[in-house]
Amino acid sequence: MLENKVALVTGAAKGIGRAIALRLAEDKATVIVNYNGSKERAEEVVKMITDMGGRAESYQCNVADDEACQAMLRDIKEQTILSQRYHKEIRTSGYSCK
């Protein structure tokens, strides 16, 4: 179980990332749904997770931009709605936040 854990899933608005985000939510992780240009799709994933009793929020970031990635990670760790500890980054977009 991933209760009290936070997972950042890049590219989570669609495809494999979406499936991974939903699966992590089933295992009780709080999911950060990262997207670049698919805000509506990301919000759909957040709604799907919250509708099944999970916790999620979306975050727009182009993960190909290192500075934007660093800002996203800082925000998640400091300002997220979550009281849990950031736990895992799941990369599905082909890029990694370093």
Précis, in short:
The chain is an alpha/beta fold and 98 residues long.
Which percent range fits the helix content? Answer: 25-40%
Radius of gyration, taken over Cα atoms and rounded to an integer in Å: 12 Å
In percent, how much strand structure appears in the residues? 15-25%
Structural class: alpha/beta
DSSP, total strands: 4
The residue-averaged pLDDT reads 84
Q: How would you describe the oligomerization state of the chains in this entry? A: single chain
Number of helices: 3
Strand order of the largest sheet: 3-2-1-4
| Main sheet makeup | 4 strands, parallel
Shape: globular
Low-pLDDT sequence parts: none
How does this model look, in words?
The structure is a single chain. This protein is of the alpha/beta class. It is 40% helix and 22% strand. It has three helices and four strands; from the N terminus they run βαβαβαβ. It has helices at 15-26, 39-51, 66-79; strands at 5-9, 30-35, 56-60, 85-90. A four-stranded parallel β-sheet has the order 3-2-1-4, sandwiched between helices. α1 packs parallel to α2. The model has no long low-confidence stretch (mean pLDDT 84).
